UniProtKB/TrEMBL annotation:
Residues 1-14 have a biased composition (Polar residues). One of its GO terms (biological process) is vesicle-mediated transport. Residues 1-29, 667-724 are annotated as: Disordered. Residues 923-1033 form the Beta-adaptin appendage C-terminal subdomain domain. GO terms for cellular component: AP-3 adaptor complex; clathrin adaptor complex; clathrin-coated vesicle membrane; Golgi apparatus. Keywords: Cytoplasmic vesicle, Golgi apparatus, Membrane, Phosphoprotein, Protein transport, Transport. It comes from the Eukaryota. It holds the Pfam family AP3B1_C. This is AP-3 complex subunit beta.
Amino acid sequence: MSTNNLSYSDQGGTDSAVEVGQETTPTSSNAGAGFGLFSVDFKKNDDLKEMLESNKESLKLEAMKRVVGLIAKGKNASELFPAVVKNVASKNIELKKLVYVYLVRYAEEQQDLALLSISTFQRALKDPNQLIRASALRVLSSIRVPIIVPIMMLAIKEAASDMSPYVRKTSAHAIQKLYSLDQDQKELLIEVIEKLLKDKSTLVAGSVVMAFEEVCPDRIDLIHKNYRKLCNLLVDVEEWGQVVIISMLTRYARTQFTSPWKEDGVFDEHSERAFYESDEEKTRDETEAKPYMMDPDHRLLLRNTKPLLQSRNTAVVMSVAQLYWHLAPKNEVSIVTKSLVRLLRSHREVQYIVLQNIATMSIQRKGMFEPYMKSFYVRSTDATHIKSLKLEILTSLANEANISTILREFQTYVKSQDKQFAAGTIQAIGRCATNISEVTDTCLNGLVLLLSNRDETVVAESVVVIRKLLQTQPTQHSDIIKHMAKLFDNITVPMARASILWLIGEYCERVPKIAPDVLRKMAKSFTSEEDIVKLQTVNLAAKLYLTNSKQTKLLTQYILNLGKYDQNYDIRDRTRFIRQLIVPNDKNGALSKYAHRILLAPKPAPVLESAYKDRDRYQLGTLSHTINTKASGYLELSDWPTVAPDLSVRDVEVIERLYILQNEPVCPESGSDAESCVEKNSSQSSEESDKSSSQSEKSSSESDSERKKRKTKTPLQKKTVKPTAKDGYHTITEHLDLRHQTTYLLLCGVIWVWLPDKDHICQNVNNQHSVLQTFSYSHWSTLCVSLFTQFCPRSLSFPLQVSGPAFVPEKSHDLLHRMTGKGLSAQYQFPRQPCLYQPTMVSVQISLTNTTDHPLEQIHIGDRSPTGLNIHCFNTIECLEPDASVTVFMGIDFNDSTQAANFQLCTKEDHFSVSIQPAIGELFLPITMTELDFRKEQGKLLGMNESSATITMAAENMTSQPISRPVATVANLGVVPSGQDNVHRFAGKTASSGAVVLVTVELRESSTALITINTEKSVMGSMLLRDLKQALAQA
């Protein structure tokens, strides 16, 4: 056969060929079958190569699927690299994806062949498909050749500006690879990282923070402007990214905020003052000790990470727990307890890490885990290392109240078949006896009973622990020493025998009759004992020689002679030292004077401490904390700064656009002419804005006085004094009914954000209050557009223009039942209007009713949860008469989350805890958009930003009206005009972050419909898709 001519170096490739080929076609060679395991069938490998080099795309695709399948099984397919790389320029998207998957795996191994296709990779960086662009960059960064570093750098810069967040995410991954290849590119890579940190996509956030941690973790200044954005995006970032961001923000917070534990130190300092002190000193100290005020950004981080404690990913929960441990005030750390205990139901690997961190926490703050003590009881199915950790935690949690329960549990553990665990239990009993003096005697008696145990390991450990306990109170336990001496012959474990000998020698004066007899027995068996027992025998002989030389002098000399010729040099050295120390002669007479003080000196009692006491010097959840040694790449947490750094470094500059107001015409007072006036007004404003832009170009050097002249007021104006904004509001709204007031206020709330000259506008609108009160409700939407056109310049672009709601549900929800509220009833609903108070808030209408027979006073909003929740409360209602009702509005920033807003609804006498739970559809605002704009925005939100589902609908519902009504009922979205009868489009934006939400309902044959949702908020998109599926299926 041809294989006989193969060299040794060639056989490796042949073996890989067998590995690759064995999954493809069945063996058909009789010759190969005759040689069994040592046969090599080249046809199998050629089959895959032929398929990859064929002209049929289907064969190439099938071959690549098989090759990727082999890679997934861990088999070597590197020999196929030349055949695979030829297909990198294929026009088939599916084939190209698989080729890139293969190249990412083997580009680093086959660098020379990969370099031949580098021009193809560069062309692929411009491919219309985002997955191809990302895969090309991934392959390019996998070629570890320094010569292409400039090409990689250029590709990363271009990808960082890509319109697809997936490609930008890939560029962040490539930064780490390039940095490991050439660290001289650090400054250029930092510029790319700074750019990507400003990215608002949740897909990019985790990857760029990981690149930041790898390349420049000390450049905290890059995080300042992006800190709040990262905190707000944290809930929507992928789980892997959440872990990375939380770890980085923990380090950042320790450098930028003052310690939230300061106030405890202040109180301790005051409590230790001397009784006699002057009033001047007390006054001076009180002025210096300012109360601690938490930085709002510090609170923002704690508030936004708290929901992640409910994450299904254990790493995320552990990250949040360590963040609260290192950053939160002491009274807030306990909120992580329940989440950590929940993780104990996971796999044993997860349990091990979580228990290690709990063991460290429980040493400093026992109260956190004491209510969940039963969760740390050992189970028979637990592994030994899990049992040991639970034992450690139970020992740390022991106190006077629960020690009896814990000791009963320990009695069971001592009988365990796991010897290591039983020994650990005895050590735990010793620690409990040391820490809690009330049970010291009880523990000692229990350990003495264990000396009669049949298990040598249990007896040996009991002796060692008893020895340590007796050192604390030796005068009270001479009976225990006698009992241990009687059991000495039955104990065979060397450490236990050595411990008993040490005890008898240390307290030989308390057992003067027993100690010499024990020494006599040890002299008989000295040569057969272990080294550690021999050393303690020599020590015992020396101590007895000093205290009872009449009975033990000859025994001591005999033992010293035996030790003089022992095989172990430690014993020989110890024997020589003891002989020179205790036996006086001419040469060492001065030293023998101090023999008693040297050998019988009082020794401090040993301190039984936890093995996890010193691990708190490492950050929780890190590898260094797990192995209790500083690992490579570990970044230490800095100490809290004594003085808070400048808070303004995290402020993001907002550019305010200035413009010039033109002359405003006055509308007639008749209602019939109001509409024509509005139309004329809007047309004039557009013409005047064009004029103003041309005039501003002409008169760029014009003085300020001439510009003020153009800002003339109308000649029909009645008032000459500028009213304030407050005066203008009262003047107008007092002439309008409730419905008109609401619309007017909503309008002003939107316009007011953009107007620097508010007093001037208030004066102009004030003149028209008589006209406003005559408008019908339908005229207000037209007036809104007119006022926007009049007051806002054409140069000011509105990419997301909020429109009126397509449908307002009349359904209200119970906020407070009259029985629970002691007669106060409250209901809430969402009016689906832009909030007056802040654009990021959701407007909530609340109806309060007094069902009692007496007035209710001072109805207001009290404490809110979570702490720091952004709520604009309604003004305090001083008095609500019996059977009276009042409607109030409040704004809540739900932060694009369906998490309930909890707060207290208070009266003068009572406080009631209430909760507002928003549906996902109420977190949107409808926007105006053309079909062309819709398609453009939809093209930017593909891939991972798109979610879709197919549903079955009734045939009578496959028209425009039955489609629009359920969608508008579920979500506050605007209808987008569509040129296709079977496609219905809806557009909106999230109230808090302003992220675009696009909904498409495409009607298909067989009464089916495809629902597609495009948005950066993937979590909100999936929740909205679920509600729309249910609504349209039931329509």
